[in-house]
Amino acid sequence: MADIQLGAHTVQSHGVKVARFHMHDWIILLLLVVIEVILNVIEPFHRFVGRDMMTDLKYPLKSNTVPFWAVPVIGIILPFVIFLAIYFRRRDVYDLHHAILGLLYSVLITGVITDAIKDAVGRPRPDFFWRCFPDGKEVYDNVTTNVICNGENNVIKEGHKSFPSGHSSWSFAGLGFLSWYLAGKIQAFDRRGHIAKLCIVLFPLLCASLVAISRVDDYWHHWQDVFAGGSLGLIVASFCYLQFFPPPHDANGWGPHAYFQTLADTQSNTRMTHAANPLSIRSLEAEAGYIYTRQQV
C-alpha cells in the first residue's frame, strides 16, 4: 500500500482557492437540491389501476425496515466521515473537496433522475391496495373499473412512486462512490494479488444491496424497481467518481486529477522561472509544497 503524505494542501491554506475554482459546480449543486424538492412535492402520474390489476397489489402495508432518514446517513454522512478521516491522515484538501463534491453530485443527480422517473411513470407499489382502500372495501369506477381510492392523500401519493426504488438508487449512488474511492485509496488493483482488499471495496456495495433487498421484503417495491434503482445509482456514481479521480487500477489512482494537474503546472512554471538555475524534480516539489513520499508496506 502506498502511504501518501502531501504538504501545504490543507483546508486552511488551499480550501478557499479550491472552493472558488469550483464555485459554479456548487451553484449547480444547489439547483439540483431545489429540483429534488420540487419533484418530491408535485403529484405523480396516477396510472390506471383496474380491478383485475389489484390481485398483484394486495401485499401488506408495512413500515420501513430502513427508514427514510437512514438513507442519507448511510449514503452521505458515512462516506463523508471516511473522507474526513483520510484527510486528517494525508492533509490533501484536493482529495477531500473532490470526494465530497463528487459524492454529493452522485447522490443528487441520482435523486433527481429517480424522482423524475417516479413522477412520470406512476407505477403502483405492491401494497397499493391497502393504501387505496385502508378499510378493505373496494370501490371502482363503473365504466373504466379504475380505482376510486378512499385512503389518505399522502399515502396514496406515495403509492404511485414504485419505479424506480429511491432507497436503492440513493444507497448505490453514495456507497457505490465510496467503493470506488476506497479502491483507489488502498490500490486494490495494483496487480500484487492482495485479494483481501476486495473485501473492503465490496463491503459498501453489500450494504447498499441489503438496503435494496429490504425494499422488496417490506413490499414497498417490485424487484424490477430495486434492480433499476440500484443500477442507476451505481452508473451515476461511476461517472461522478471518474470525473474527479483516475480509475483505481491506474498508477495514480490514489489521488484526484486536480493534484497531479496542479503539480505538473507548478513544475512547468518553476522550471521556466529557474531556467538559469535548474532544480531537481524533488526540489521543485519541495519548493512548491507538493512533497510526498511513498513507502511500500
UniProtKB/TrEMBL annotation:
Protein keywords: Hydrolase, Membrane, Transmembrane, Transmembrane helix
Segments traversing the membrane: 26-46, 66-87, 99-117, 167-183, 195-214, 226-244
Domain of life: Eukaryota
GO BP term (any one): phospholipid metabolic process
Membrane topology: Multi-pass membrane protein
Pfam families named among the record's database cross-references: PAP2
Major localisation: membrane
The keyword Lyase is assigned to this record: no
Nuclease in keyword set: no
Domain Phosphatidic acid phosphatase type 2/haloperoxidase: 101-241
A molecular-function term among this protein's GO annotations: phosphatidate phosphatase activity
GO CC, one annotated term: membrane
InterPro entries per the UniProt record, alphabetical: PAP-like, PAP2/HPO, PAP2/HPO_sf
Compartmental location: Membrane
Family the entry assigns: Belongs to the PA-phosphatase related phosphoesterase family.
Name the UniProt record assigns to this protein: Phosphatidic acid phosphatase type 2/haloperoxidase domain-containing protein
Originating organism: Musa acuminata subsp. malaccensis
